[in-house]
Amino acid sequence: MPAYKDEKTKKWYCQFYIKDWTGKNRHIVKRGFDKKSEALKYEVDYKSNYIATNDVTFSTLVVKYLENYKLNNRASSTQTIEGRLDKITPYFGKMKLSEITPDKIIEWTQTMNKEGLSASYLKTIMTTFGATFNFARIIYGYKDNPLKHIKPPKVSKHETMKIWTPDQYNLFIGQVKNEEYRLAFDILFYTGCRVGECLALCPSDILPNKAIQITKTIMTLHNPLRYEIGPTKTYSSRRIVTIPEFLYNNIQVHLKKLYKVKDNEPFFYCRPFALRNQIKK
Known about the structure:
By secondary structure, the chain is α+β, with helices and mostly antiparallel strands. It has three domains: 4-50, no CATH class; 58-149, Tyrosine recombinase, N-terminal domain (DNA polymerase, domain 1), CATH 1.10.150; 166-280, hpI Integrase, Chain A. Helices cover 45% and strands 15% of the residues. The chain is built from eleven helices and eight strands. It has helices at 36-49, 58-72, 75-85, 89-92, 102-114, 119-140, 166-173, 179-191, 195-199, 245-257, 272-280; strands at residues 4-6, 11-19, 25-33, 206-207, 211-214, 216-221, 226-231, 239-242. The strands form three sheets. The chain has a three-stranded antiparallel beta sheet with strand order 1-2-3, covered by helices on one side. Strand 6 and strand 7 form a beta hairpin. The radius of gyration is 27 Å and the shape is elongated.
């Protein structure tokens, strides 16, 4: 396990071989170390972290994939990916990567269809499935992605979004007795904001020119169940929306009823599931 010094750059480098998933030796070269000990340590660390891909199970890959995904993504996005992987891991978790073949994937898609998954949701799951194999290429040198041999399910054109008319909304809101829920639904209807964005609103977001600024959202996280406030999903989701005068006045009345609510604290105490349950009623 030697290290070498490049006489031109005066830097140290190491080179060694690793057996890849096909059984062939891969030549690894890493340059640019200031010290010989750093070059030697790189080789030791690389080999200790490198597992012959033929022995890697899909569950092992998923753990490493999620560890990496969490570094660059928000908790709610990670939770979404975990939900998709939960549809894959029970079937493929114990299999080695080399055992996951197109015919097994087709069999799995048929099982998912029987569970009643929509074509669009199954397509997103398969996208995540393929992403794990792309990650395996990066960390294990695994070159085959069996998902590239599979045609994704055909997704029919999305139905036109169904939007309530004022009469339909008035019929609904007339059945809602809780004042906090009524106000939340009014904000949702007259601004078009998302539930999480509505419940994350603070007094400072209610502008004196009868407008609402939307810059954050409340996220529902699991294991354990908790709620966190963070920025909107994308920067372009930040916006200012004009509201009717009656809605502005109703918000002011609501704020006056609250005990010492701070400008930077949400003024709704209900949770997303509570509003959704009201609609289901």
